[in-house]
Amino acid sequence: MAYALVALDTDRIKSYVFGTDRLREIRGASSILDRLNREIMEEIARDLDPRAQVVYANGGSGLFLLAEDKAEEFVRRVQAKYSEETRGGATVTGAVQRLPAGLAERDLWKAHLQEQLALLLYKLRRAKECPPATVARPSHPLFQLCDSCGLEYAAGQSPWREPREEHQRYCAICLQKRSEDAQIKKSIEKMAARPQEVRPGSGEDAKQAVLWANLINRLHRIAPDYFLKDGQPIVPKRPRDIDTLRSVASASQGSIRDYLGLIYADGNGMGGKIEKCLTLGEIKKFAKSIDDAIYEALATAVARHLSPVHVSGLLAEEDEENGQTEQGGQPKKDSYFFPFDVLLLGGDDLMLLTSGDRALQVALEVARVFRSEAREQQGTLSVGVVFAPLKYPFGLMRSLAENALRFAKKQAHASKWHSTGDDDDTRLNFLVVAGAATHEFDYLYQTVYSRREGNSEFCATLRPYRLPVLEALLEAIRQAKRLGFPRSKLHQLREAVLKMNRTSTVLAALAALQGCHDREREFLLRWLYDFNQRYLLQNGQPAEEAGTIQGFPRVIFPWSCLQAPGQSGREIYLTPLLDLVELYDFVAVQEGERESED
Length: 598
Ligand SMILES: [Zn+2]
Known about the structure:
Helices cover 44% and strands 16% of the residues. The protein has three domains: 3-129, 2-Layer Sandwich (Alpha-Beta Plaits); 240-308 and 335-438, 2-Layer Sandwich (Alpha-Beta Plaits); 457-586. Helix 7 packs across helix 10 (280-305). Helix 13 links the parallel strand 12 (381-389) and strand 13. The chain is an alpha+beta fold. The strands form five sheets. A five-stranded mixed sheet has the order 10-11-7-12-13, with helices on both faces. Residues 259-412 form the Cas10/Cmr2 second palm domain. GO terms for molecular function: nucleotide binding. Keywords: Antiviral defense, Nucleotide-binding. This is Cas10/Cmr2 second palm domain-containing protein.
C-alpha cells in the first residue's frame, strides 16, 4: 500500500484568536483551535485509515502519514470540521505528498525523505498564497453588527446568563467562542478538583480542555501541594474575565498592585531547525520535545510563582453565573483563583497574562526551564514582557508585547556587547507602559533609549537581556530595596540618564548621588563597576579574542564607555541604571514579601 504525507496548517491563527479584546472569546477561540489541532485531526485520520500515523499535531500545524487514496479526503474533512467548529471563523490549509511506492512500511520512519518534505512544504506554501475566493454576503444598513468583533452581523444573544451583558448581541463566530469558554470552564474546575486523576487525552474533560488537562497533570506531578492550602484541597478557578484577573492582581502581595504583565514567548529559529530533520522519526522526536519543553516550562513557572490566590468579593458574581447563588456561608474552598491565564500555547509559542509583580519571575523561569528541557534540540526562547496599568486596553498591550518580542529576536545577534561566545540566544525584552503616549519598543529605542552624537553613541538600555545578566539586575534591585534606596533618587538618576550625553548626564547623576547616604552611594557605585567588569567585558575574555569591542570599559558615572572596533575611534556609552529604575517596582524583595512605600 502506498503512503502519503499530509501537512496541515491553520491559517492566520492570531487574527482568529485575537479577533476581539475580550478574554472569554480569546480563550474560547484558543481552546477550539487547540482541540481541532491536537484531538480532532488525529480522530479524522484514524477514522479514514485505521493505520494512519501522527508525526506531530501541535502549534496549529500537523503532519500525518496515511494511505495515499485517503489523503485528499482527509484534508477536505479537516477543513470542513474547522469551518463547522469555528462557524467559519478559522480555516486550515492542507497539502499532500505521496511517498515512493517502493518504501516499505518498516522503513517509513527511518528513510531519508528530505526531497518529499521540501516538496510538501512548497505545496503548502503555494496553497496558502492562493486562498479560496470569498463569497460576498448580503448587506443591509439595518443589519446589526456583532457587539464584540464589530465585523460580522449579529446572530443572537448568549444562550446563558451573563451578568451585566444581557443586552449584547453576538455573531455566530463570537458566540461559538463564548460557548466554548463556558464549557471548558466547567471541565477545568472538574479537573482542578481531582488533579491526581487527570490524564491528557483520556476522558471527556481532558479532551474538551486540552491545554488545561496537560497543565494540571504536569502541575500535580511537579508540585503535588499546588492544589492544597494548609493541607486541605482547594479548587482554584480560572479568572472569569480580565476584571477578575485585575482583582486577583490587586489582591497580590507585591509592591505594585495596579499593573498587569503580559508575557509573550516564542522559540528562536524553530522553523529552520525542523527543516533540517531528514526523517519522519527525527521530526516526530523534535516536535514532541519542543512541545513538551514549553509545557514543562509553563507548568514549572506556575508551580513556583503562580500559586492560587484567595480573593473575596467576587464570589457572588461567579455563582450568579452558575445560577446557584447562596446567601451567606460560602464554602471557603470556592474563593481561590489561578493568578494567571494562558491565552495561547502550542508548538513553541506561549502567551500568558498575570499580575505585574509576578510577570518577570514567570518569564525568567519559562525561558530558563525551556532552555534546559530543549537542550538536546538547542531550543531557546525569545520573550517580550509588557507591564501595563490595569485599565490599559488588552489589544494594545498584545501588540506592544509582539513588538518587544520581535525586537528581542532581531537584536539578539546585533548588539556588540551582547556577544557571549556560547550558543544561548535566549533573550528577554521588557516594556513598561507609563502614561497614554507609550510607543512600540523599537520606536522608543530609536528615539529615547539610544542617541548618536558625533563620534559617540549613547545607549540608555541594555535590552534585550540575556538571562544571567537580567538575574544580576534583579538581584541588584532586591539589594537596593533592602537598603531602602530612596525612590526620589532613582527618579533623579533616571532623568539624568535620559539627557543622553556626557556632560549634563554625568553632572546630574553626580548631583543625585550627592544626596544619598554613604552606604547607598557605595552600593550603587560598587554594583555598577562590578556589573561592567562582569557583563560588558565580553565575558571577561581578552579584547583580541572577543574581536568586536576593544579594551576595558571606562566608567564615567553613570556611563560605561567602550571603544568600537576598528580605527573609527567611535565610543559607545552604556548604562544599566535606567533599566534598574524601570523595573524597580516590578521586583519583590522576596517572594510574597511586602515593603513600605516611601
Ligand atoms: Zn463577532
